Amino acid sequence: MSEFIVEAKGVTKVLGHGAAQVYALKDISLSLRRGELTVLMGPSGSGKTTLLSVLGCMLTPTSGAVRVCGYATEGADAKVLAKLRKDHVGFVFQSYHLFPTLTAAENIQLALDIRGMHGEDARAKSLDVLEKVGLAHKSASYPRELSGGEQQRVAIARAIVSKPSVILADEPTAVLDTSNGQAIMSILAEIAKDPTHGVLVVTHDSRMTSFADRVIHIEDGRFVRDERGSAAAA
Fold it and tell me: Which domain holds residue 119?
């Protein structure tokens, strides 16, 4: 088994057409290792979210190659890319994306439902991951009854319940205060310690780099610095 869960080589992504055309990514190469939490930092408009979307098979690169868990994405149609996402990638978003009419446990079970797991097995698994993120006591709570930090924990539980190899988190602490943001990063760092997982977190908050094994800085669609993080040095 390769130590790399995601590999990108020479990835360029062009958005828009004509006078509105923008090179969002410019010849990006990146390998994400198992057992590591990588933080991708950069200002707004630097290409962070675009790169996350390309690595997560939500966008296809204009040129270059991407491999996810050994599977090449070049020439793959929408159905194949959807299967790659379902089988190998878990997403965590800034705005949680929880269904307001479902409880915490039901939101997680929905991720299992689309993978063919139903009933008591799905409920038991959802409760198990809620316990891992410290929210077993809130399994029957609706999103409106949860704080922002608690909602993000549910979102993380939903992302990891199917045991994806790759966890991609887009600004997961942006709308949280410092205490809740650090709690979320602690959970993601703990997940990354599992050698079957790798975690990539996009952020503009330099305070979150203390949890990282690796910190990559991006500006104007290009990597400008790649360094070991504080967690790797600890």
Answer: 34-56+89-233
How many domains does the chain fold into? 1
CATH of the domain at 156: 3.40.50.300
Tell me the C-alpha distance between 180 and 61, whole Å.
34
Q: What is the pLDDT along the chain (234 residues), one digit of tens a residue?
A: 568 999 999 999 999 888 889 999 999 999 999 999 999 999 988 999 999 999 999 999 999 999 999 999 988 899 999 999 989 999 998 888 899 999 999 999 998 988 888 888 888 999 999 999 999 999 999 999 999 999 999 999 999 998 899 999 999 998 888 898 999 999 999 999 989 899 999 998 888 889 999 999 999 999 999 988 776 655
Q: How far apart, in Å, do the first and last CA atoms of the chain sit? A: 27
All residues at 6 or more sequence positions from 179 whose CB lies less than 8 Å from its CB, including other chains: 149
Residue 206 domain-assigned (yes or no)? yes
- Write out the E strands in the chain: 4-15, 22-33, 37-41, 63-68, 71-72, 89-92, 166-170, 198-203, 214-219, 222-228
Question: Is 3 within the bounds of a domain?
Answer: no
Helix (H, G, I), strand (E, B) or coil at 11: strand
